[in-house]
Write a structure and sequence with these properties.
Order of helices and strands: HHHEEHEEEHHEEHEEE
Shape: globular
Oligomer: single chain
Helix content: 10-25%
Radius of gyration: 18 Å
Strand order of the largest sheet: 1-2-5-4-3
Number of strands: 10
Structural class: alpha+beta
Largest sheet: 5 strands, mixed
Length: 295
């Protein structure tokens, strides 16, 4: 890809994702900005099979919370969305930049004597002063959590930065993790792509502020107020997914993030009705309905 085209594409991507230009550019280096069979030329949805699986699992962990959750209670990752994040999708890595990398990593990775096990199979591979390089044992996919705005993990690795004693790659999957993963129904490739699209658009917004996903914890000014119990239920099996939630983002904003002509999932076709919306991507379907859970 010519450098001038890459620069323009990175600026366009950053306008929607809140990435820095350098962070966005790293996500499009391997992709033709003019076309992509797995997503837009912005590089959000084109990734390895292992990355697609990891991002789908993250969506299930982040978007299940409360008594209606479809995952075990000790696998809820919803509190990650309370932090100010930037999600940067790369072909073979997913980078989370945040001012609180320690807090975010503690929700994602398990450790001894705690009921919450994080994302099953996610481990610390290398520790740095700015954050962690994580590795998902079942898929081999990488995830980076860092305080560096450009997504870097600089300097020599340091064991002292893992002061939370998060599980490292030397710790095999626990019985609880095996049980949580085995309880998941099989997911087809198109379904994983659709779920992964939710993860990489966690912080997406329109440059003109017409819509904003807001990390699922903030809303656009002027939107109708919604209850804030932050209960979520994302169920997926084979090629069918259903999503229910009782707080932000506004349903129209989430729909827009997946169908926007610039940043939307290429090939996704959506339709809205009075109670929610439905999105189809190839053979997969996501039905989303905001609900008002009881107090």
């Amino acid at each position: 890809m010519p450098s001038s085209l890459r620069r323009r594409t990175a600026h366009l991507r950053a306008a929607y994702t809140r990435e820095t230009h350098a962070l966005a550019s790293a996500g499009i280096d391997r992709h033709d900005a003019r076309a992509s069979s797995a997503g837009s030329g912005l590089g959000l949805d084109a990734c390895t099979t292992s990355q697609r699986r990891l991002r789908a699992l993250l969506a299930l962990g982040l978007l299940n919370h409360g008594p209606t959750s479809t995952w075990p209670r000790n696998v809820s990752l919803a509190d990650v969305t309370r932090y100010t994040l930037v999600v940067s999708a790369r072909h073979d890595n997913l980078v989370l930049t945040t001012r609180a990398p320690y807090n975010v990593a503690c929700w994602l990775v398990g450790r001894n004597r705690l009921p919450q096990i994080g994302l099953p199979g996610l481990r610390v591979e290398t520790s740095y002063e700015e954050g962690w390089r994580l590795r998902h044992l079942p898929t081999g996919a990488a995830l980076t959590v860092t305080s560096d705005r450009n997504g870097r993990l600089r300097g020599p690795a340091t064991a002292g930065s893992n002061y939370a004693q998060l599980w490292t790659t030397g710790v095999p999957l626990t019985a609880e993790e095996h049980a949580a993963l085995n309880a998941l129904p099989p997911l087809r490739a198109d379904t994983e792509t659709l779920l992964a699209a939710l993860t990489v658009r966690l912080c997406a917004h329109a440059p003109d502020e017409s819509w904003d996903v807001g990390t699922w914890f903030s809303s656009l000014a002027g939107r109708p107020s919604r209850a804030h119990h932050h209960q979520r239920r994302l169920a997926a099996a084979a090629d069918q997914c259903t999503l229910h939630w009782d707080s932000d983002p506004h349903p129209d904003d989430l729909f827009a993030s997946l169908t926007d002509p610039v940043i939307g999932l290429v090939g996704a076709i959506g339709e809205k009705d009075s109670s929610g919306w439905r999105l189809r991507y190839r053979h997969a379907c996501l039905t989303a309905h905001p609900v008002a859970y009881g107090h």
